[in-house]
Structure formats: C-alpha cells, structure tokens
Amino acid sequence: MEDEPHGVHDFVYDPRNADVLVSINGELKHRDEATVSVFDSGYLLGDGVWEGLRVKDGGVAFLDVHLKRLYAGAKTIDMDIGLTKTELTKRLFECLKTQEMTDGVHVRLMVTRGIKKTPYQGPRFTITKPTVVIIPEYKSPVPEVVEKGLSLFTVHVRRTGPAEQDQKLNSHSKLNCILACIQADKAGADEGLMLDADGFVATCNSTHFFIVRDGEVWTSPPDYCLGGITRGNIIRVCQEAGIPVREKRFSLFDVYSADEAFVTGTFAGVTPVREVDGRTIEQVGGRWPRRSQRSISSSSREA
C-alpha cells in the first residue's frame, strides 16, 4: 500500500499538546473542555475571521501585520471585534505566558460574530459580543516533507474573485478550499493547486505558490489569493537579495516547465514542490535548494 500524502500542514507529534489551555473569550480551559455554543455564528455559518500565528523566541512573528489583516477583515464583514489591538494582544500573550509557551508554537486566533438567538444568517440575530478563541499548540513541520518536497494536483475548484467572495478575506468560510483539498487528497497529492476564473494559476488550497524561471521568481497577482504575510515577506526578501521577483499571471505551461517551485505559509515557511500533475520539478533529488531557493530560504527564516 502506498504511503498517505504528507502535506505542508502535517506536524510532528508533541505530547504537550494533550494538555494545552485554550482561551475562550478570555477564559482558559483545557482543550477537552474548550467548547462554544452550537448557536455560535462560526459554527452555524462560518461567519468570522481568523489568523494563524507563529511563536518564536518569546514573540509572535509579524503580529502587527497579522492583526492589521484580522481587523481589516472584521471591518469588511461589518463586525466589531469588541477588543482593541492592544487588548487582544494582551489576551494572546496571557494565554501563552500562563503555559510558558515561548517557541515552536503555532496559534489559531479566531473571531466569530457571536451567538445567535436562532439559526439564521442575518447579523441582527446575533445576541452576544463576538466569540474570541485562541488555540496554541506546539507544532513543527515534518522534516521529511521539507526534505522530499510536495506533490501538487491542479483541481477543478476555482478561486473566486471579489464579485463572489473576495479572497482577501481570511474568513471561516473555506468550503471552496476544502473541496480543493479533498480533490487533491483523492488524487494522491499533498496540496491542491487552484486556478483563477480565466485558468491562470492563483494559489494552493492552503499555501501560496511560487515558481522560478530563468532566475526570476514568479507568483500570481493578489486578485485571487489571500494577502499572505509570508508571501509578502518572500517578495520583500527577493527584492532585498537582488533576485528578480514578479507578481504576474502565468499558466500551467509555465509551471510544468519551471526550473523550481515552492509554497509559503506561516506554519512551515518555505517548502519545495517536487512535482505538479505528475511533472517532476527538477529541484528535488539532491539538487534543492538551488541558488534562488537557498537565498530565499536563508533570508526568510523569520518570514
């Protein structure tokens, strides 16, 4: 039997996670007792926004940028989080400090619109303040995944544009990405590569996608993908390192014949791609990282 796919979000087992405390509206509860109401807007409708955060050396990487994106998303869906950025930051660090979690930790910070008086989508049926949940866990990527690289499969599920659901919203409503993930799983791949409405490459179902061609780093324009923070840092690092980097439309032709490919995300940072739709990307097999990958990876350790 073939091995199960191992994606970029697989992590090394850590027994400490069995007893982590989760913050729910400021109250710390053991993970087995951390619950929200079935009438919560997030459970009923996926109505909310969230961020994934990385804790390193006692701090949270790029927290100000993450909070800016979180509050921008909340404003877009007309939701008042009910806490200032300073108050939310204090709550986050109280959750971490209580458990002495200072490094190698990944945090899921979630804010939903709150509890409904009855299951209905209208915000006016919300009867509480927003639900703020902070889940910290000890997480590190599986080393074999980074060493081997990912396999991607181009899925039929497309990324939507602003006329449908703006992909700049990091919302709880992720069904299109979930469907893409399912199709990739069924195809035996680690991650789904998603196209935009016109058939150009957009992004992956849970990471951002880059290719390298003739010494240039390409990634898709931001029209059909989340404003990724690690994505933005990679673009900045390339510029600072003198590596030509372009946000441009490109097709699967460019992907299949690329010199290198990789994905980015807050959890795993930069992860190589070894194949796309059965086409081998030559960087793997003892040849990764090549010059551009090496420069990007070494310069983006904090990205």
Features:
single chain; 303 residues; alpha+beta; nine-stranded mixed beta sheet; six-stranded antiparallel beta sheet; 8 helices; 26% helix; disordered C terminus
Describe the structure.
The protein has 303 residues and is α+β, with helices and mostly antiparallel strands. The chain is built from eight helices and 15 strands. The protein has helices spanning 41-45, 63-76, 85-98, 143-148, 175-186, 229-241, 252-256, 291-299; strands spanning 21-24, 27-30, 48-56, 59-60, 105-112, 131-138, 150-154, 191-195, 201-204, 208-213, 216-219, 245-247, 260-265, 269-276, 279-280. The strands form two sheets. Strands 7, 8, 9, 10, 11, 12, 13, 14 and 15 form a nine-stranded mixed beta sheet that branches. Strand 3 (48-56) and strand 4 form a beta hairpin. The longest helix is centred in the N-terminal third of the chain and has 14 residues, at 63-76. It is globular, with a radius of gyration of 20 Å.
In short:
With 303 residues, the protein is of the alpha+beta class.
Topology summary:
Elements: E1 21-24, E2 27-30, H1 41-45, E3 48-56, E4 59-60, H2 63-76, H3 85-98, E5 105-112, E6 131-138, H4 143-148, E7 150-154, H5 175-186, E8 191-195, E9 201-204, E10 208-213, E11 216-219, H6 229-241, E12 245-247, H7 252-256, E13 260-265, E14 269-276, E15 279-280, H8 291-299
